[in-house]
């Protein structure tokens, strides 16, 4: 609709230019505009701003200029107020939305990436499983292996915790000439927070005494075929130099 | 800001509206950025998954604790709690064995209290509404004569989401030494 109207307008304008000496007063559009322009000055509001182009085709431009100049100063305060209000509103929304987004991101559920970061979760599970297998297994013929495992896999207070936990087992195994094998049966990552994580581990411990003195070493060595013990522990790990090291062992007070 | 204002005053004939417009545009830019940032934070799938994980874990821990807690003086309340914490096959088992079990506990006059030491989710399918949890538990049983004994349990639980709530659908202890020698 508007395009055809534009087209007609343009044609009329062209005609008007061609027949410039003859006044355009006779045309319906010319009269319409001539009638409208003087009236509205004050009450037309913001829509008038959109109309300067067609206005140029109408009467002499000289008569239009003072009108426009007269209109502008009266409209400036509302526009300014509108812009200011809009600025405050938009700024307010920006701040509010930012606070909302921050609030959502700092939810404790989000800072824990256990399971949401599957690659990291399985990497931690794999390394902790191997570490626990090594750290809680002991062969009396190769006592150095345990020390090496402790040196490789432990850090911080876990070093002392591990020494205390294993001291007894070690002495007994040496006496009984036993081989203790620990196998992790289940593990789950409780929490991953950046380069720290906590893993819950279920493990089975079997000990096989190879010494021939059956029954003489007391009830600890009562059986020399496999004896299984169920163990559960939680380990804290830290990521260091591309590897996860155990930084604390929690045996739940046992 | 002051420099921008000066520039506008130098360049244009109408500094005030131009400045106001510039400020509005800047504010609009911030608003658009903050708005889409908020939208992204609110529609983060990873975050929704994490929320499900935590919901499943806390429901699982609570349910495992409930199922290991029973006071012979408050049997009805305890067993009702058992049934409300479970769903599926486990629920049916508990419901069908309820009377027999209640009679046993009444006879033995025991009070069991469980405490969750630690728990973690091993698997979570948030679409299907299934999860698997490990819960390390310490159960204290007080016998009729008042003697208390502690026992640690390595629980494996399976959860199913029903009507938006996670409930236990299977529960057992991790087997000991089952694999290597028979």
From TrEMBL, chain A:
<feature type="compositionally biased region" description="Basic residues">
    <location>
        <begin position="1"/>
        <end position="15"/>
    </location>
</feature>
<feature type="transmembrane region" description="Helical">
    <location>
        <begin position="79"/>
        <end position="99"/>
    </location>
</feature>
<feature type="region of interest" description="Disordered">
    <location>
        <begin position="1"/>
        <end position="74"/>
    </location>
</feature>
<keyword id="KW-1133">Transmembrane helix</keyword>
<keyword id="KW-0472">Membrane</keyword>
<protein>
    <submittedName>
        <fullName>Membrane protein</fullName>
    </submittedName>
</protein>
<keyword id="KW-0812">Transmembrane</keyword>
From TrEMBL, chain B:
<dbReference type="InterPro" id="IPR032710">
    <property type="entry name" value="NTF2-like_dom_sf"/>
</dbReference>
<dbReference type="Pfam" id="PF13577">
    <property type="entry name" value="SnoaL_4"/>
</dbReference>
<keyword id="KW-0472">Membrane</keyword>
<dbReference type="InterPro" id="IPR037401">
    <property type="entry name" value="SnoaL-like"/>
</dbReference>
<protein>
    <submittedName>
        <fullName>Nuclear transport factor 2 family protein</fullName>
    </submittedName>
</protein>
<feature type="domain" description="SnoaL-like">
    <location>
        <begin position="69"/>
        <end position="170"/>
    </location>
</feature>
């Amino acid at each position: 609709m508007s395009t055809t109207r534009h087209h007609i307008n343009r044609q009329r304008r062209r005609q008007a230019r061609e027949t410039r000496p003859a006044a355009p007063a006779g045309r319906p559009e010319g009269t319409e505009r001539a009638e409208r322009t003087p009236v509205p000055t004050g009450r037309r509001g913001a829509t008038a701003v959109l109309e300067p182009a067609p206005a140029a085709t109408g009467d002499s431009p000289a008569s239009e200029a003072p009108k426009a100049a007269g209109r502008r100063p009266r409209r400036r305060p509302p526009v300014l107020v509108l812009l200011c209000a809009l600025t405050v509103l938009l700024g307010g929304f920006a701040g509010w939305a930012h606070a909302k987004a921050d609030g959502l991101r700092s939810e404790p559920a989000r800072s824990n990436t256990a399971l949401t970061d599957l690659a990291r979760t399985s990497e931690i599970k794999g390394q902790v499983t191997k570490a626990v297998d090594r750290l809680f297994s002991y062969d009396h013929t190769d006592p150095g292996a345990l020390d090496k495992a402790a040196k490789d896999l432990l850090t911080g207070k876990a070093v002392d915790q591990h020494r205390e936990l294993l001291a007894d087992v070690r002495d007994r195994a040496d006496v009984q000439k036993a081989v203790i094998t620990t196998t992790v049966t289940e593990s789950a990552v409780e929490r991953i927070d950046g380069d720290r994580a906590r893993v819950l581990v279920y493990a089975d411990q079997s000990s096989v005494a190879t010494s021939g003195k059956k029954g003489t070493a007391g009830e600890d060595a009562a059986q020399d075929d496999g004896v299984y013990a169920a163990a559960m522990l939680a380990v804290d790990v830290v990521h260091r130099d591309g590897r996860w090291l155990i930084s604390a062992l929690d045996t739940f007070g046992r | 800001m002051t420099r921008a204002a000066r520039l506008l005053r130098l360049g244009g004939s109408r500094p005030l509206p131009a400045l106001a417009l510039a400020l509005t545009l800047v504010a609009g830019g911030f608003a658009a950025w903050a708005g889409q940032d908020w939208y992204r934070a609110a529609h983060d799938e990873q975050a929704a998954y994490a929320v499900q994980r935590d919901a499943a874990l806390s429901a699982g821990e609570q349910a495992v604790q409930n199922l290991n807690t029973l006071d012979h003086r408050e049997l009805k309340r305890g067993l009702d709690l058992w049934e409300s914490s479970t769903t599926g096959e486990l629920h049916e088992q508990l419901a069908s064995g309820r009377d027999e079990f209640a009679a046993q506990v009444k006879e033995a006059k025991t009070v069991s209290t469980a405490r969750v030491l630690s728990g973690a989710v091993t698997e979570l399918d948030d679409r299907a509404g299934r999860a698997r949890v490990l819960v390390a538990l310490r159960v204290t049983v007080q016998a009729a004569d008042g003697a208390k004994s502690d026992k640690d349990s390595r629980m494996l639980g399976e959860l199913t989401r029903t009507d938006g709530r996670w409930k236990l659908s299977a529960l057992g202890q991790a087997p000991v030494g089952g694999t290597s020698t028979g």
